[in-house]
Amino acid sequence: MVVLEEDPQSEEIIARVAALDVGKAELVCCVRVPHETKPGRRLQEVQSYSTMTGSLLEMSDHLRCLGVRRVVMEATSDYWKPVYYLLEAQGLDPWLVNAKDVKHLPGRPKTDKLDAVWLCKIAERGMICPSFVPPPEIRRLRDVSRYRIDLVGVRTAEKQRVEKLLEDAQIKLSVVASDIFGVSGREMMAALTGGQTNPKALAQLARGRMRAKLDALEEAFTGHFTDHHAMLLTKMLARIDALDADIAELDAAIEEMIAPFAAAVARLDDIPGVGTTAARVILAEVGLDMSRFPTPAHLASWARFAPGVKESAGKRKGKGTTGHGNRYLARALGEAAVAAGKTDTFLGERYRRLARRRGKKRAIVAVGRSILVIVWHLLSDPQVRFVDLGSDFYDNRTSPERKKRNHICQLEALGYKVTLEPAA
């Protein structure tokens, strides 16, 4: 006999709801409210608005007059942001939803009006969930943090251009120096742009441990550096200096904006591999309020640090790929996982064990997920502090009998007959 189980979710129709199909210049707004005289029937209105501020204020006033509070919209490029922020400031309850979750039924015509109506219908039945949009103070921190990351990428690209230019001039400075943008390297390149091409004179600009490589430096500076190379190198170094100044200003701005969350940053900094910069990036991306993620698994799934499940006819399909999530958060977690893999900690041992069996890429994702779980617990309870389990956690957890059995199997596989005698 089949026993019917109760679904914990209750069926609920949202009485008054609006949905927006947002474009760059205009949007289509669909409103659905209860019929005034016919119980169980709905009234619907579809209207287009400009995305200019005045038109959006007019739309928000109209929605308030109809008693609508929840306004649902798709995440369309960055066009949703001004609409979302304005409606939020007007006291409405905007929801941002993933476009993959609201695809129109196949075989139906697709227009902006039909998209808005379809989105409104599935929203009133509670068939979609809102995406995570952080509060204003975290959004501002996120904007500055992301811009800093982008500028660091631009600076790295410019430094690579400098190295390619020196290679073009047969200047092999990068072969001798591990960092050509250190104090010695910058003085040598400044001398090159100033017209100095004598290898001995350039090598004498070395400082510190670079003084032990004078012969190699003289050989490295023997090339054909011309006025053409000097002109380009001057422009590139000036651009790098300007980027350094911009990044320093952004660091100061982040320092000021992160001050109210300094305690959270300090607790995240205790995680192996997570430094102050990574802690700030993580906080800017996930926020401080973990009530948006009921469990650590929800946070890992949102960040796409959990393998997807695709099953059909009782068979698992695909390779358990995680998909594409927040690239800024993924970059910070990946760098933290690699850094943790070099430490004598639980996370370091976990990284090394997984890298041996499954490869470095899977190990990075697995350790990144572990870091996210730790972050969730630290941010959920301000009183919690990180305590490392130790690099010997796996060894201590494995029972002696299990170790003995594994070693015996390995020796027998090599062709030995094993006889055990207990030690005195």
Topology:
Blueprint: E1 17-22, E2 26-34, E3 42-50, H1 53-65, E4 70-74, H2 80-89, E5 93-97, H3 112-124, H4 136-168, H5 173-176, H6 183-193, H7 199-203, H8 214-220, H9 227-257, H10 262-269, H11 276-286, H12 296-302, E6 311-312, E7 315-316, H13 327-340, H14 346-358, H15 360-380, H16 393-397, H17 400-413
If strands are numbered along the chain, what order do they take across the biggest sheet?
A: 3-2-1-4-5
- The unreliable regions are none
The coarse overall form would be extended
| Count of extended strands | 7
Give the SSE string.
EEEHEHEHHHHHHHHHHEEHHHHH
Index terms:
single chain; 424 residues; alpha/beta; Nucleotidyltransferase, domain 5; 3 domains; 5-stranded mixed β-sheet; two-stranded antiparallel sheet; 17 helices; 7 strands; 9% strand
